[in-house]
Amino acid sequence: AQSVTQPDIHITVSEGASLELRCNYSYGATPYLFWYVQSPGQGLQLLLKYFSGDTLVQGIKGFEAEFKRSQSSFNLRKPSVHWSDAAEYFCAVAPPTGGFKTIFGAGTRLFVKA
Amino acid sequence: DGGITQSPKYLFRKEGQNVTLSCEQNLNHDAMYWYRQDPGQGLRLIYYSQIVNDFQKGDIAEGYSVSREKKESFPLTVTSAQKNPTAFYLCASAKGGGRGDEQFFGPGTRLTVL
Fold it and tell me: Which of B80-88's residues contact partners 24+ apart within 8 Å by CB, and which partners?
């Protein structure tokens, strides 16, 4: 079955430290891959997406993600975290063919300590 | 400014009552979606519509109903048949509903059953 796994329910990093949020997917072919961010009590905002081309994708707010086909992963990174990055982050996939549904991971909540 | 609006922000319902959540977009998007968000479960698709007067069930449609009479509007009714309706509800839209399309989210409605 198609699935998206975010292994970390929550992560705490110090302000200024680097960040990596993990995402693994299970699909027969390379799907469309997305990272969204959600501030408390708000809707989701797209950070970046990937389907083909360069496997390192740049997004908004200084985030980037790297697609690794061999590991079925699409990890999100940021070199230096700011307190305003505290939020919940969702990895999502959409199939390259067939149905139109986007499947979301369970999310990783990021806490930033001063 | 273009965007998606959801109302109300907070909604309280007595058991046995139907309630309708509003979702309006002025982005001229064809596709619209309703998701339910529960802690630790990410987003689960309730219904989606790719064109006016047409909609499809998502993964958890039981106890919910929708209509899509206008391109701009996609209201969700939570019926008394929904056994556990307390949750955060998110509406989203996408330009063409294609698999790679970014979804734009509203701010959400928090429904509480008393």
Answer: B80/B15, B80/B16, B80/B17, B80/B18, B85/B13, B85/B111, B85/B113, B86/B111, B86/B112, B86/B113, B87/B36, B87/B37, B87/B38, B87/B111, B88/B36, B88/B37, B88/B38
Show which residues on chain B lie within 8 Å of chain A, measured between beta carbons: 4, 31, 35, 40-45, 48, 50, 58-59, 90, 92, 97-100, 102-103, 105-108, 110
Summarised one tens digit per residue, pLDDT across range A43-91 is 999 999 998 888 999 999 999 999 999 999 999 999 999 999 999 999 9
Q: Which among A43, A46, A95 has CB closest to B99?
A: A95
Contact A88, A108 (CB under 8 A): yes
8 Å CB contact between A88 and A104: no
Greatest alpha-carbon span in chain A? 46
- Give the whole-angstrom CA distance, residue B76 versus residue A45: 22
Nearest to B107 among A43, A97, A107 (CB): A43
* Whole-number Å distance between alpha carbons of A26 and A3: 5
Asked if the Cβ–Cβ distance from B100 to A49 is below 8 Å, we say yes
